[in-house]
Known about the structure:
The protein has one domain: CATH 1.10.630.10.
Amino acid sequence: xxxxxxxxxxxxxxxxxxxxxxxxxxxxxxxxxxxxxxxxxxxxxxxxxxxxxxxxxxxxxxxxxxxxxxxxxxxxxxxxxxxxxxxxxxxxxxxxxxxxxxxxxxxxxxxxxxxxxxxxxxxxxxxxxxxxxxxxxxxxxxxxxxxxxxxxxxxxxxxxxxxxxxxxxxxxxxxxxxxxxxxxxxxxxxxxxxxxxxxxxxxxxxxxxxxxxxxxxxxxxxxxxxxxxxxxxxxxxxxxxxxxxxxxxxxxxxxxxxxxxxxxxxxxxxxxxxxxxxxxxxxxxxxxxxxxxxxxxxxxxxxxxxxxxxxxxxxxxxxxxxxxxxxxxxxxxxxxxxxxxxxxxxxxxxxxxxxxxxxxxx
Length: 362
Ligand code: HEM
């Protein structure tokens, strides 16, 4: 089955209409409550636990992980997240002859990824015959699609890996920024919107949406180049003819900064820019955090729901502040070739109940 056909089948369970179903959302909200319970003192890998439990809920509920409460499940998450072996694998793919020469030396520094616990989780889940109707596994088990057991397991493993670091790191960078004194007025405005609208659905809250979009614009979890082959016959791009099979690429980090008429002061974290009517079409056109087109992110609506539900639950009750052990250096974006992660591999924040927080911010 080719990629486009396969993707059409799977996309059904990631469509916004499916994500917005109560069984899907209730599962995310339950994990958001567990997250707050777990880390009233610190936010770190727990965001990755949250993303892990969220994506496995969508993949194979009721057989998903419970890493926010169960240490064994957390070990699975750790095995998949913070993967440093991508460089090695990409060199192997794009420069096989170079890899033959330096592969052995490389693997001394960058161990090839092995994920036996995660493999076991998906192999066992893919065997279940009773996944909930909203899950990806339920869709794949539909006899009409003739998918084999190993194929389903492999697909689930890919989606699981794709849904942990991305959502986890996206939240880390965003919550870190909201916790800085320079952004406290933004945190306050978000809290005010959330407290004034306790019964409004998370996807109808304008400022929450602006905060998430700006977070993903400034700190896209996959900021680097996404390579594609130019199709047969070549293509003319911006007046330049590019022959077929040339590798071209585009990257979120650049498209989010390149046109200062669309994103003035591009390095400034400024959610207000998303509220302006003028320029809306151009902002959406240049927003590339989830890429776009046939290879764009299938989990976009799930990721947005996870991010917004967690931010709603945290900022309607708490103020977040950087833990004193953290430094700016810990939170620099570390280049993982395609994805990024905080250099210190941690993001510790303090959650202070709003009723105790009498500070006012500009
Ligand atoms: C903030 C969170 C996320 C970001 C920023 C993100 C970003 C991206 C990007 C940029 C791509 C395109 C990669 C490429 O072109 O090579 C992609 C693909 C993909 N993403 Fe996400 N993603 C996120 C969350 C998720 C989640 C929660 C899932 C869970 C299912 C997911 C599943 C996938 C899959 C399966 C693909 C490959 C799609 C294909 O082969 O056509 N992502 N994602």
